[in-house]
Amino acid sequence: MELTVASNNRGKMAEYREILEPLGFTVFSQSEKGIRIDVEETGTTFEENALLKARAVHQLTGGWVISDDSGLEVSALGGAPGIYSARYLGLETERERRQAILSALRGKSDRSARFVCCICLISPEGKEHYFKGIWKGTIAMEASGENGFGYDPIFVSEDSGGHTTASLPISFKETHSHRARAVSALLDFLKTETRRSF
Fold it and tell me: For 126-165, what is the HEC assignment?
């Protein structure tokens, strides 16, 4: 069974292949399927953006398709950067985006935050399924750590023992993160579906 991931991100592709190939799926990136589209993420939620990308690829393949959208929500910033996490305030670098959040939180007592990941799976029949993972924590007072990327150097998850995600082994994030939780729910669903349908 073929499955296309609406992405060309190498790290994401490796993760999905490791998860899905044991279930009998042959996993392709969209470029490996000759799909050269760049879907504009005009949704107002993670679910909507994941669906936009998944539907666009599904229309071209007609097969199993997966897409995901994720980001950081900071309580004191009204949930920002949220769906704009990768392009927060129009800033170009990850360091600039992290610093903007640290600056915005200066003097604020509420530093609670959470990472959110939403996966959209579309079956060959066009049925749409969603799987969501949430990873709660706080924003550190300053960036630290060399592992990970994005906001990892300023995010302290509730299960990290007070360390930023970037200060811990990458294996910790792979096991505990928002994406790991969404993927776990996806995996449980697919195990049931593959037993039932194939």
Answer: CCEEEEEEEEEEEECCCCCCCCCCCCHHHEEECCCCCCCH
For residues 91 and 180, give the distance between their C-alpha atoms in angstroms, rounded to a whole number: 27
- Domain covering 2-197, topology: Maf protein (3.90.950)
Contact yes or no for 189/132 (Cβ under 8 A): no
φ, ψ dihedrals at 41, nearest 5°: -85, 85
Cα distance from N-terminal residue to C-terminal residue, the chain: 9
Catalytic-labelled residue, pool 38, 69, 159, 188: 69
Coil, strand or helix at 83: helix
Domain coordinates of the chain in residue numbers? Answer: 2-197
pLDDT in tens, the chain (198 residues): 899 999 988 878 887 888 888 888 999 999 999 999 989 889 999 999 999 999 999 999 999 999 999 999 999 999 999 999 989 999 999 999 999 999 999 999 999 999 999 999 999 999 999 999 999 999 999 999 998 889 999 999 999 999 999 999 988 988 899 999 999 999 899 888 766 554
Query: Is 110 designated active site?
Result: no
Rounded-to-integer distance, Cα 8 and Cα 117, Å:
18
